[in-house]
Amino acid sequence: MDAIQKIDAIRNELKEGMITDVDTLMHTLRVEALAMALATNESDVDMTVLHASCLLHDIARGPIEKTGGSMGDHAKEGSKLAATYLKGKNWFSDKVSDRIALCIAQHSRNSGPKPDSIEAKLLFDADKLDFFDPFRLSRFCRRLGYDATAGVLSVRVYSGKGWMEQPLAGFIGFLRTKCRSIESCLFLENSRQEAIRRLPKALITLQQLEESCRYLDSDKVKSASD
């Protein structure tokens, strides 16, 4: 197989069950597409390394969630899983497989080493920019709960301590704050410009989602202040 066929094979394995969570799979494919678009503005990008690292960057999320581990470790654990997977396939040289694994180890905002290659920076930036995607922002709607006694909406979120409930208003406020912070963490100028372009639409999406949720109890479900 040539490099394109190998990348296609990885993508197909993800779709066929290697990643079982649909949200994670959709996020992965969006990150790959966005990284490719960003790469057109950069030079000396190894597209094989970039494609593969994007496709495999979140493969540890499912196993971590099943064992109740910390998502803060998903980049480190994903790097290990990717290295094992790639070397088992024997599709790439050890050097290329190691570069892919290193990109994955460097894609977390909160833990692990910082990106030190153009491929790692593109993966990092595309992963963070996908936070603005309307589908990703709306994921919490499928995990809503309602305390009828208190009249409060809550959202079920995963943390290092497993699943927990958070008040909806505070959670939407957290999403707004995170959206506004993304530009400052990105490595590439074109990525920062893309963040500036996407932010207003993301804030509108959150406002619309919040307004929809208010219909359940408009007196008690309050908006987090901007």
What does this 3D model show about the protein?
The structure is a single chain. The chain is mainly alpha-helical and 226 residues long. It has ten helices and three strands. The chain has helices at 3-18, 22-39, 47-56, 61-67, 74-89, 94-105, 118-129, 134-137, 168-185, 189-213; strands at 144-147, 152-159, 162-167. Strands 1-2-3 form a three-stranded antiparallel beta sheet. β2 and β3 form a beta hairpin. It is globular, with a radius of gyration of 19 Å. The protein starts with a helix and ends in a 13-residue tail after the last helix.
Mean pLDDT: 90
Number of helices: 10
Give the N-terminus to C-terminus distance in angstroms: 52 Å
Specify the structural class.
mainly alpha
Low-confidence stretches: 218-226
Listing every helix as H and every strand as E from the N terminus to the C terminus, the arrangement reads HHHHHHHHEEEHH
> How many E strands?
3
User: What level of helicity do the residues show?
Assistant: 55-70%
* Largest beta-sheet details: 3 strands, antiparallel
Residue share in β-strands: 5-15%
Whole-angstrom Rg: 19 Å
Shape: globular
- The largest beta-sheet arranges its strands as 1-2-3
